[in-house]
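Quick start: read one record
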Amino acid sequence: MRAGAGGGRRARAELREALLRRPREIPSKLFYDDRGSALFERITELPEYYQTRTELALLTAIAPRLVAASGAEELVEIGSGAATKTRVLLDCMEQEGKLSLYVPFDVAQGTMRRVAEELTAEYPGLAVHGVVGDFMAHLGHIPEGGRRLVIFLGGTIGNLRPAEAGEFLTGLGREMSPGDCFLLGTDLVKPVERLEAAYNDAQGVTAEFNRNILLAVNDLTGGDFDPRAFRHQAFYNRDEQRIEMWLVSLVRQRVRLPAIDLACELAEGEEILTEISAKYDRPRLESLLTASGFQPVDWYTDPENLFALSLSKKP
């Protein structure tokens, strides 16, 4: 298991820069410490959160075609998390006798170690090479190999602003070999009520997940954020076609973050942006892929047109 070099220094520098913006921001990658990853797995099981079950059903339906089309013997997953949906592809590759290597790439080292142990037990002969890092900075740590299917699921591309999405996809393409395939999961534009319900669940798990990012900031900086002093807010920004998640300060407060030499004076009602989640349609997404050097090959969506999986190839 390999970690991206200088990840902590980079994360602290990015955090300091983000907190000095107006409005203040916290990089969403900090959501996914081990506790945050566990909370997100709970979110994926909520009735309001259609994304995971829709993507899983779609992936299950098309997996044999994907494996055949890619001809891949190695699977690389960016933002692997608990690798719940990944097993659908691993099963299919194993059945075809084409499974040799799985490369999970994620920020949560504890979760990755657990998943690697589970998968090597479930798939005899499977080699797992984990990479712990930031996919905007450490894609170069992915080991070289043979014919690959690279996957980026869960609609995570939506967490990137347009320029960041292009930068990420272009960088990913540089790490792929000609003929490698890329499978991208993307949440689609849909009625606002359906979108907002997915980020404001009745059980409050998403709110807990949102506030947990403050504990991750404390761990990174020696800070004293109190999650109880903030409320969760999520809504759809129609102009930008994206969900925005914020933390709103309930009181006037001063937060100290020694490791980044910063003290934040927060007014009552002041907002901190923690995540965006852009929603796409097919023309917008395929334009982004083409501009990033990929050749779109196929497009798959569910009957309700909630979520899409797109297959591309590096020419």
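DSSP finds nine helices and 15 strands in the chain.
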